[in-house]
Amino acid sequence: MFKDEIWLITGAAGALGSALAAGLVAGGAQTILLDRDRRGLDRVADRLEREHGASPFLMPMDLSGTKIEEYQLLKESIESNLSRLDGIIHCAAAHRGLMPHEQVSEADWHAGLQLHLNAPYWLSRTLLPLLVAAGGRMVFPLESPGTMAGAYRGVYGVGQWGLNALVRQMAAEWHGRGVRVIGIETGPFYSALYSAVRPADQPDTLPAAAAVAEAMLAVLTAPDDAPTAIHVLPPVLRTTVG
171-176: long-range contacts (C-beta < 8 A, 24 or more apart)? Predict the structure, then answer.
């Protein structure tokens, strides 16, 4: 399904990123795992080696403070070590919990916009030539904009609104260049991030990240029939969020 393809996953130490890495490796892909949590990356790598005999490339990087020059160095590293890139999945995200805007610090606001909006933008732009050359895919797990419009969603919610717009713009501009830009509204699933955004939801009522990852990978293998890029995962994986 993904045989001999090379995929970069940001937020790869998290619940969804690590599940996607396992699914890609099981399908025959080589993975580049990027996350600020080096120990988490090592745990994911150990699991992939133990369960699949895979040896992913590890990229410890904190996207909430990355400079544009560092994206170029990442591109050069991929070119020199792997020579190509078939896809990116932007899973990196963080949330400090629900709080009113007047309690959000300047540092947290800037770091949140950097992580959730600026980093996906600049990473995508920098790696675009590699994806054009490979006819690759660019994937963004998304929140439904409606769920992010309520009180206390903070910089994470603002970033999600911006990311929804960015995915549509990139899809419209880059579809004609052979790059498939895909935004996937995952719906709720159990993870540390989801628990921070919606603390009232019970974990045992939520789908596992592995089930969501499997459904996302199915979207990636479906025919590309239009430049419009937003997909919503099937209702069987979703629950109602108040």
Answer: 171/227, 171/228, 171/229, 172/227, 174/128, 174/132, 174/138, 175/227, 176/227
Supply 89's token pair.
Answer: 């999945």
Buried b (16+ CB within 10 A) or exposed e, 37-72: eeebbeebbeebeeeeebebbbbebbbbebeeebbe
Q: Quick one: which of 38, 92, 88, 91 has its CA closest to 64?
A: 92
80 Cβ partners below 8 Å, 6+ apart?
none
Residue with tokens 């998304």: 142
- Classify burial at 140, counting beta carbons within 10 Å of its beta carbon; exposed 0-12, middle 13-18, buried 19 or more: buried
pLDDT band at 242 (very low <50, low <70, confident <90, very high): very low
Helix/strand/coil (H/E/C) assignment for every residue in 196-223: HHCCCCCHHHCCCHHHHHHHHHHHHHCC
Rounded Cα distance, 16 and 157, in Å: 19
86: alpha, beta or left, given left = phi > 0 and alpha = psi -120 to 50? alpha
Question: pLDDT, tens digit, for every residue of 140-184?
Answer: 999 887 777 778 888 988 999 999 999 999 999 998 899 999 999
